[in-house]
Structures are given as C-alpha cells and as structure tokens.
Write a structure and sequence with these properties.
The complex is a heterodimer of chains A (about 525) and B (about 260).
Chain A lengths: L2 H41 L1 H16 L2 H19 L8 H25 L3 H9 L4 H31 L12 H9 L3 H30 L3 H25 L6 E7 L2 H16 L3 E8 L1 H9 L5 E5 H8 L8 H16 L2 E9 L2 E6 H7 L4 H7 L4 E5 L6 H10 L5 E5 L1 H9 L5 E5 L4 H4 L2 E3 L11 E6 L7 H7 L8 H12 L7 H14 L1
Parallel strand pairs in A: 1-2, 6-7, 6-8
Antiparallel strand pairs in A: 3-10, 4-10, 5-8, 5-9
Helix pairs in contact in A: 1-2, 1-4, 1-6, 1-8, 1-9, 2-4, 3-4, 4-6, 5-6, 6-8, 7-8, 8-9, 10-21, 12-13, 20-21
Chain B lengths: L6 E10 L2 E11 L4 E5 L6 H8 L7 E6 L2 E2 L5 H6 L1 E5 L10 H11 L4 H14 L16 H13 L5 E5 L7 H18 L2 E6 L2 H7 L2 E6 L2 E6 L1 H6 L4 H21 L3
Parallel strand pairs in B: 3-8, 3-9, 6-7, 7-8
Antiparallel strand pairs in B: 1-2, 1-4, 4-5, 9-10
Classes of the chains: A alpha/beta (about 525), B alpha/beta (about 260).
C-alpha cells in the first residue's frame, strides 16, 4: 500500500464521523422544518408560494457559495447581537446544508399530499375526520413513500454537498478531496470521493429499506432501516463525546488551500504538539476567510503573507519596502483586531508573473515592461483570486498590461496549463518549487508594482498573550529560507515520488535540525 | 300540517367562482324518505348535498336537523352523525376492510376489539362474506368496494345518509343490484337518504321523491309516479321521457307478436 493511501485511510474514521454527523443533522433539520412547512403549504398559498420560491432559490445558489455566504452572515450576526456565534465550522455548514436539504423534502411533501386520490381525502372529510386526524391517519401514512423518496434525495445531496463544508473550516471527507486536489495527490481525492459515495449509497439503501417497509407494511424492513441509521448516527457522536474532554485546551491551526500552507500548518502542528498542546486543523480556508477567522478567534494561528494582508485586510494601495510593511502591519493588526504578528518565517511567497524560459527568450521578454508590448497576443493563466486582487490592478496600471485572454485555474492546474501550452504567462508564486522544476522564468518588476509577500505567523487575540504558545512557535521565526521552502513545496507538488505535506514538513524539520 | 321534517333546507344560496350554484333552495325532507336529487352537471345537486354535511358552506340559508341548525354543531361531530357515500368510494387503501368499516366508531372512541362483531354484522348487512374483513381495498371489485363504502357509512348508525352518485362508476348489472339492495337496507334500517344521481331511471326505480334541479333552482319535486304521469316543465318532461321511451321500446320487444 502506498504511504499516501495509508495516510488517507488512517485519516478516514474521524472524517467519516464528522461528515455523518454534519449531514445527518442537516437532513434531520431539513425534514423537521420542511415537512411541517410542506403540510402548511398544502392548504395555504401564503405559505406555499414564498416557501417554494425560497427553497428553489437556495437550490440555484452553488453549494460552495451558499456555504461561504454564511461566514460573513454569522460574523455580522455575532457582532450585532454581541453573542459568541461561531462563524466558522459546524454552524455555517449545518445551516447551509439544512437549507439545501429543504427543497426535496418540501417538494415531495407537497406532492405526497396533493397527489393523493381526491376521493380518499373527500371521504376522510366526509366521514368526519378533523384536519389533524386526516393528516395523521390518512395523508401521512399514504404519502409516506413519496415523502421518504424526498428524504432520500435530500440525504444523497447533502452527503455529497457536505464535502464542501471543508471550505468553511468544518472537517468532512472534503478534507481529503481538497487537500488531494491541491497537492495533486489523486489517491487522497479518490479515497475522499469513494468514502463519500459509499456513505451516500449506504444511507440511501437504509432509507430505501424503510421506504419499501412502509409501502409493503413490512415492519422488519422499517426497523432494520431505522436501526441502521440510528446506529450510524450513534457512532458519529461517540468520538465526539470522548473528544469533548480535550476540547478546552485545543488550539486550532488554520491553513489556506495550497501545498505550502498545508506543509506550514503541519510544521505548526508538530511544534505545538511537542509543547503539549492539543491541536486541530482547519484546512482549505479561503484567503479572505482565514484572517477574519483568526481575528474572530475561530482559529488560533496560521501563516499569511504580508502583501496580502496589506492590500486585503488594510485595503492599502501603496507599496512600501518589506520591513516597513511588516512593521506597519504588526502595529495596525494588533491595534485593530488584537492579532499578533509574531514575525516572518524567513521567506517570501510573492506573486510573480512567469513564462516558459524558451518562449520568454524567443519573445525577448525579461521584465514586466517587455511583457506589456506582447501581452495582447498572450494568454494568462492565473489562480482564481489573482485577477480580482489589488496586486493585479497595480501591475496592470503600472505597466499598462492587457492580455489577449485570461483564464483562472486552481493553482495545480494553472501550472499544467503553462506546461501543455494552453497558456503563455502564469501568475506564479515565488516560493513555488515548480518554477525551477518546470524551467520557468519570473519576470522582473522594475517599477515595484508588486508588494512584498513575506510569510508571517499570525496569532489570534486569545493566543497573543499565551506565553507557552508563543514560546513554542518563536523558534520558527526566520527559520525557513526560500530555497528550503521551494524544495519542500516541490516534494508535495511534483509528479514522481510525491510526498504528503506531513512528510514534507518532517523533511523541513530534519533539515532544520541538521543545519 | 304533517310532522316537522327531519331535515330542513331553508333558503340556501351559494355562488362559486361568480356562478350561482344554489339560487335560494328550500327543501324539507321527512324522516324515512329516499330523495333523489336529479339534474345535469352544474345544476347544483352535489353542492346541495355537500351543504348538508358542511363540506360546502352556503352563502346564505339554514339547514336544520331535527330542528337544530347544523351551523351551530361541531363540524366533525356533525359529519360523524351522517353517513356519506361517494362515487369515488374513497376507501382508505392502507387500511383493511374491517379497519375501513370501523373508522367512524373508532374516531368516536370505540376500541378496535369492540368493533369485531359490528364489522361482521355490517358485512352481513351489505351481503359480503365475513372473510373480506382482513382484505385490503385493492383486492376488491368495484361493487364489493362500494358495498364496503356503504357499510362504512352505516357503521356509526347514522339516521341520515348522503350519497353522491354512489353507483355511478359501476357496471349496469352491479349498479342495478346495489341500487335495489340499498333501497331495502334503507327501509330496514329506517334511514333518511338524499341521493344525487344524473340517471333518471335509477331515481325513478329507487327513490320515493325526486327533486329535479336546474341552474341552482328546483324545477320539479314529486313522487316518481307523478313525474311519469307528466310535468308542465318541458325540461323535466324531457328528462322523464328518455327512460319511459326506453321502457316502452323494451316492452314492445318483449311482447309476443
């Protein structure tokens, strides 16, 4: 068995438990809210029209966006109400998925009751059933198969969509899929997808058992199905109950969604564990989400980049030298949010535009000035954020660069695009090992349009005063030179003899100790 | 003046979707009678029937049962006192025949065990074998299902039966059988029945009073024999004429040449 497969399988049990707990709770809420609403809507147009509109509208929002939307919403709600509402993790994922589960439950609930033989409902009324009796004795038992079919649909959708909960910091099988995608570790991706598919099929099978049990009035089927579901849910709560004890002292390590971040999170994890902390990971946070999560205390520590914080958090457009920028950030982030910028890890991961060496030579392009002239005939492959970031505006304004075509990829596929020739210019990261490995050149920035991107360690307001915590991380400041980070990144990103981020982190450590 | 009617419909009006369906109908019904409401679709006969057990609420008018206004009664209790049989039958498909028959007494609080004898008695009353009790409705023929429908309506010993095209979906032979069987049940149990039908022949053969409705008004209200003798309204005469001509034609065919 490959180490990557072993590692992925070893990570499965807690992820499956978290995934089941999340999707099970979401479906339960969807059913508990959806069914009564559907029953109300059968007789009341004032409920029916808005209910179907809202449920339908929710369904048109991509699940990923729906999940992300609840982060700022909960954050704002927490601020307005003064309550400690967790904006990251279980709650936003639960709300979004419950809403998602609502539509099939509502639709089938309506169809189940409205699809009944009108003679049967007329008879129910005519013999003197109250509305409640008609519902409980006639409509629900007869509609049960259709209602259950809706619950099955909701369940399968929800288990699939729950993989996206990873992006708002809630552990799920998506952890394997997202980290695998970023590091091109297809074994992880497959393990995550397969596990999610197996869960969906198993849940569907158990619900199908209940459904046929109801339709054929077979009690053993119903009980077997219900028992199976109850057992699965009980198993998910079990590890939670035991984990609860360690919960208080647990520190949460955040990471954005690319290899370097996974490696650095692993480094932080090892350090903090060695210092006696219980750790928890929140991987694959969006760039904007990560800082706000830290400031809100949802995560305790993560690595960000000075230029990103400068432009995105402080909304600054000027581009001061690296040291000045770091000093200003340290002071302002602390004053504004109570966040502690502990220091630079020792390397930069700046945005840089890169090209294939041969093509750059052929076109005579060395700097961004040279690029401006040829850009209209060139295609840019960027990561998903780059074109909307102030850095790009700054470059585009300073050099008057306009590309013939631009296309966004996730970072992994962006490099693929330049290798296979479907793009000419790349928005690269300077610490990326693939720049050297793929024989790319980065273009000089003589006008200083791109800010500095020192990798800096950020601590949440709560940890800013935690001496043991700071002491555990202090040795990392200035300890990782750029060439080491590049090599560690390449270990994870390369195609052959690929390593996991945890292995690369260990490698980084060994080297450190050796030096 | 005769004894006061068991059921008294007074000045009923109902407009549905801008159309007048009941245009001031008054109809006293004496105990023990079997009244047929006859008329074309849209004449208001079903609306009139449903007003009696408040499945339709009239815009104006009153309905009295033994002198008490139905509008003042709890609606579920009112309906449980009145037997209701419809063309679609409406047996509950997830309940056995016995459970279907026992439903109204059960709603009134009878225990399942109490109902066994009553179910057997009712099955016998509608001429069905007692083994049918454990079957589900899908295993019954149309005629059997409607016999169960009648048994269900009778289970709580109602004094009044409302029937909306009760035999309309059945084949002609079954239909005639059931019609005749119901007439004798009606007499044996001392029921008062209001039956909606669009079939004048059925009405003439079963009912002892025929009320012809047209556009929400009563065109004719008479005993079958009086109607056959002739009626001044051309539309009523025409309704009667069809079965009469058929009967005469049949008689000529049967007569020895």
């Amino acid at each position: 068995m490959s180490p990557s497969l072993q590692e992925a399988i070893a990570e499965l049990p807690p992820l499956i438990a978290a995934h089941l707990l999340l999707s099970g709770s979401a479906v339960a809420i969807g059913v508990l809210a959806g069914l009564p609403l559907a029953i109300l809507a059968v007789h009341d147009r004032r409920v029916r029209v808005p209910l179907l509109a809202v449920a339908g509208l929710v369904q048109t929002i991509p699940a990923l966006a729906l999940l992300a939307l609840f982060y700022p919403l909960l954050l704002a709600t927490g601020r307005l109400t003064g309550l400690a509402i967790p904006a990251l993790g279980f709650l936003p994922a639960l709300i979004a998925l419950s809403l998602y589960a609502l539509l099939p439950v509502v639709r089938n609930g309506l169809a189940a009751i409205e699809g009944l033989d009108p003679a049967v409902t007329e008879a129910a009324d005519g013999i003197g059933m109250t509305r409640r009796q008609r519902l409980l004795l006639v409509e629900l038992p007869l509609g049960a198969p259709v209602i259950l079919a809706g619950i099955r649909t909701a369940t399968v959708w929800t288990i699939g969509a729950a993989t996206l909960a990873t992006t708002v910091g809630q552990s799920s099988l998506g952890n394997l899929i997202f980290s695998g995608l970023q590091t091109e570790d297809w074994v992880r991706v497959l393990v995550g997808c397969a596990a999610s598919a197996v869960l969906a099929l198993a849940a569907d099978g158990l619900l199908a058992l209940i459904e046929t049990g109801v339709a054929r009035r077979s009690r053993w089927r119903m009980w077997l199905g219900l028992g199976g579901l109850a057992a699965a849910m009980a198993l998910t709560v079990l590890p939670l109950a035991t984990a609860g004890e360690a919960g208080k002292g647990t520190v949460v390590i955040g990471a954005k969604n690319f290899s370097e971040q996974y490696i650095l999170a692993s480094v932080l994890e090892t350090r903090l564990r060695a210092a006696g902390f219980h750790t928890q990971r929140r991987d694959d946070l969006g760039s904007a989400v990560a800082y706000r999560a830290l400031a809100a205390g949802d995560i305790d520590v993560y690595v960000d980049y000075s230029g990103t914080l400068w432009a995105n958090v402080l909304a600054r457009r000027d581009i001061p030298p690296a040291a000045m920028m770091r000093r200003a950030l340290t002071e302002q982030l602390h004053r504004r949010d109570g966040v502690l910028l502990l220091g630079s890890l020792g390397f930069e991961n700046a945005y840089a535009l890169a090209m294939r060496r041969t093509e750059a030579a052929r076109l005579g392009i060395r700097s961004l000035d040279d690029l401006a002239a040829s850009a209209p005939h060139l295609r840019l492959a960027s990561d998903i954020e780059f074109l909307t970031r102030p850095e790009w505006r700054s470059v585009a304004d300073a050099y008057h660069i306009r590309f013939g075509a631009t296309r966004s990829y996730n970072p992994t596929f962006m490099y693929r695009a330049i290798v296979d020739g479907s793009a000419d210019v790349l928005s690269a990261f300077s610490s990326d090992g693939r720049i050297a490995a793929l024989d790319l050149v980065t273009l000089a920035d003589p006008r200083g349009a791109l800010p500095s991107y020192e990798a800096v360690l950020l601590l949440s307001p709560r940890r800013a005063h935690d001496r043991a915590f700071i002491a555990a991380l202090q040795p990392l400041i200035g300890a990782i030179p750029i060439d080491r980070m590049r090599q560690a990144n390449l270990l994870v990103d390369r195609d052959k003899d690929k390593r996991t981020p945890a292995e690369a982190a260990r490698w980084l450590f060994q080297k450190e100790r050796g030096s | 003046m005769a004894s006061s009617p068991l059921l008294d419909l007074i000045g009923l009006r109902k407009t549905l979707g801008g159309k007048v369906v009941l245009d001031g109908i008054s109809l006293p019904i004496t105990e023990g009678s079997l009244v047929a409401l006859v008329g074309a679709s849209g004449s208001g006969k079903t609306t009139l029937l449903k007003a009696i057990n408040r499945l339709v609420v009239p815009d104006a008018g009153h309905i009295l049962i033994a002198g008490a206004d139905t509008a003042d009664m709890p609606v579920a209790a009112l309906r449980r006192r009145i037997g209701y049989v419809i063309q679609g039958i409406g047996l509950f498909p997830h309940m056995t025949v016995a459970q279907n028959i026992a439903i109204v007494p059960r709603l009134n609080g009878a225990s399942a065990a109490d109902m066994d004898d009553r179910v057997a008695e009712l099955l016998a009353l509608v001429a069905l074998p007692v083994e049918m009790a454990s079957r589900y409705p899908r295993a019954l023929s149309g005629g059997q299902a409607q016999r169960v429908g009648v048994a269900r309506a009778l289970a709580a010993r109602p004094a009044i039966m409302l029937m909306d095209e009760p035999f309309g979906a059945l084949d002609p032979v079954t239909r005639a059988d059931l019609g005749a069987a119901y007439r004798s049940l009606h007499d044996d149990l001392g029921l008062t029945t209001i039956m909606v039908t669009h079939d004048m022949a059925e009405a003439l053969l079963i009912a002892d009073r025929i009320v012809v409705l047209h556009e929400g008004r009563i065109l004719a209200d008479a005993a079958p024999a009086d109607l056959i003798a002739g009626h001044e309204d051309a539309r009523v005469a025409e309704l009667i004429d069809v079965p009469r001509r058929q009967a005469e034609a049949l008689a000529r065919l049967a007569a020895p040449r």
